[in-house]
Amino acid sequence: MYAPSSGPGADEHPERPAIGPDSRGLWLMGNDVDLARRLAGTGFDWIALDAQHGAIDRSALVDLGRALGDVGTNFVVRVPGIDHAWIGASLDAGAAGVVVPSIASLEDARHAVRATYYPPLGERSWGPLTPMWDGYAPDAERANAQVQCAVMIETAGALDAVEQIAALDGVNLLFLGPVDLSLSLGLGLDALLADDSPDGPVGRILAAARRHDIEVAAFAGDPSRVPALRALGIDRIAVATDIALVALGARAVLDLTEDTYPRSP
Ligand code: 3PY
Ligand code: MG
Questions:
Q1: How many domains does the chain have?
Q2: What residue's CA is closest to ligand 1, atom 6?
Q3: Are 90 and 124 a contacting pair, CB within 8 Å?
Q4: Element (H, E) at 184
């Protein structure tokens, strides 16, 4: 069981990061498999399943992983915390990477790396589920080479340690969580995103990533925040959540039909 070579061959799975350059991601908080499949076909480059604040439990994770694997959509999981079991389960369910929240120190980042990688770099345990639905499970070496280990920079502690975190073997993406970072720093969200100075919070994250040759991604959540993130030089952005999509879609329909339903005086 669980043979690494089950499913389609490795050559059908070229190495490419889930959260790649110039990519737009969708942040999914709901656990509806059909909706996830439908949204996967709309053109976003990747989907992040939010198991920290969304309605995604371990069982929904497997259902969503199978459905997104079926349609060939790259997905990552924002795990509920710095949690070895959740990180392993997310990767077992076919996630191309994990986004680990609430990192507050270098030791937290080390913990995330240990859970994400098979030995010798980490302590991930073998047991991918994807062969059960005829999907691809790379062998341990290839999995280690392909996985994205994104640690969230969203606390003052992570920002203080950002240089060492970026230097850590295995961390290949710093993921800006602007909402929590602004709370943690006691700054307004708009002020945080408007600060483009090299020694500002986002400037420090970008500089650390550049120095250690890793990438930066960010959560916008609402597309109205995308221009500010792009202006800061971030090109891998979760541009909307499913919740924002529904609200924007509803507003668009109401606007479109406004003339046909004149308001009574
Ligand atoms: C943040 O902005 O804090 C996030 O974690 C995005 O969900
Ligand atoms: Mg957060």
A1: 1
A2: 177
A3: no
A4: helix 178-185
pLDDT band with cut points at 50, 70 and 90 for residue 259? confident
CA distance 203 to 121: 29
Q: Is residue 262 part of a domain?
A: no
What CATH number is associated with residue 223?
Answer: 3.20.20.60
Note whether residue 264 is domain-resident: no
Residue with tokens 């992040």: 48
Catalytic-residue membership of 84: no
Catalytic residue (one of 53, 84, 111, 212)? 53
Residue 176's domain spans which residues?
20-254
Chain-centre distance of CA 26, in angstroms?
A: 9
Residue-wise pLDDT for 48-87, tens only, equals 999 999 999 999 999 999 999 999 999 999 999 999 999 9
Q: For residues 260 and 54, is the Cβ–Cβ distance under 8 A?
A: no
Query: Ligand 1: distance of its center to the CA of 174 in Å?
Result: 13
CA dihedral 13, 17, 21, 25 (to 10 degrees): 100
**Measured between alpha carbons, how far is 81 from 51 in angstroms, rounded to an integer?**
9
CA of 177 to the centre of ligand 2 (A): 5
Ligand 1 neighbourhood includes 160 CB (under 6 angstroms): no
- The verdict on residue 55 lying in a domain is yes
What is the Å distance from ligand 2's center to 215 Cα?
Answer: 18
Determine the Cα–Cα distance for residues 93 and 166; give it in Å rounded to an integer.
27
pLDDT of residue 17: 74
Residue 125 lies in a domain: yes
